[in-house]
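Protein modeling request. Please complete all fields; requests missing the sequence field cannot be processed.
Requester role: graduate student
Desired output: 3D structure, token encoding
Chains: 1
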Amino acid sequence: MRNPTLLAAALSITALWYFVPVSRAQYCDFPPKELMRGEHREYRGPYENRVYGYSVVIPANVVGYDDVNPFYQHGFGIVVGTEQPSYVFVNGEPNSLEFATSGDAASQSLKYLHKHGNRIESSEITESHLGPLNAALLLATYTCPGMTDRYVVSSIFAVSPVGSQLYEVSLYAHESRLKRDKAVLDAVVKSWQYSPQQDDLASAFDKCRTVTPEDVADKGAPTFAAYRVPSPGAIENPRLDLKSNPTARMYRTVLRQEISQGPNFAGKYRVAVWGCGTSCAMFAVVNLSTGRVITPEGFSSTSAVYFGTEEQIVFPESQSGMGLFGFRKDSKLLAVLGDLDEDESREGAFYFVLENERLRLIHSTLVEKDCEKLREKP
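Delivered output (378 residues):
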């Protein structure tokens, strides 16, 4: 049986829910539409994250909402204002990319900003502090693809003293709202405290067991481009056929919430993901035209207890932003990370193609490690 308390040392779905962090997916579409939909947590006043060892105080006039990641609780988001709202993102996560300094993390964030097609008009990285930790402040002004409005991101990054954790506090705002809403960011940053736990340091076994991007790197893996499909027009009144699959009736509430958001996979399909316990996720694919619900064959869930990577790193062309799942609206390839049904012999990256309303496994990249010799004796 795996120990969930190892999350602090061995897990990573990079922030940014989905998880690259949620923040990376929100440069031009903030606050995240999923933030307050469906089931979510709300936080007011003092907030403590014991898994990642930090705490803050949420200002009295705003509420913190957890992100849409069904796997772990990294932090929360704050929606500031109603007209052209800004978004404050507070996050803690394992330093899975092994940034040596906070400046390295800030530089990588700037690269992601540019990678998503945004035009960066100005940027600056300077030294700062987050609580007692040395930090880097990234301030960038940018425009989004096809838009003329200017936006600003102000992010503070810090790495824990032993390098095991990465922290971020960010504000995304329309340029005209920056002055108004920066006060919320400043208040959160001022209250931020570092509170490491006794088990923050991973054992040699835990470090070995953590699955890194290199462990699932595979030049022979299929690509999204090889399985392109045309994108249809808008699908009005998407359907859910409760008789098509036992999962449809059992999880009809979450599936109905998902299909209302339109297609995100293979043209006319919606991939729906929901949690099934600590570091566990289930998923289904819904044909929005017929309502048919499609589930994988041979397993029902994937687990990420020892995963120190996520889909945006392993599947860089993915549009999902859902941590363990890689997919695109214009491709019928779907990739899954994790341990299938918590079976360590089926740990790795798995690639499926949607054909004839079935998910067919076409490629597997299994993790092969021998870490037992490093396990500490009781």
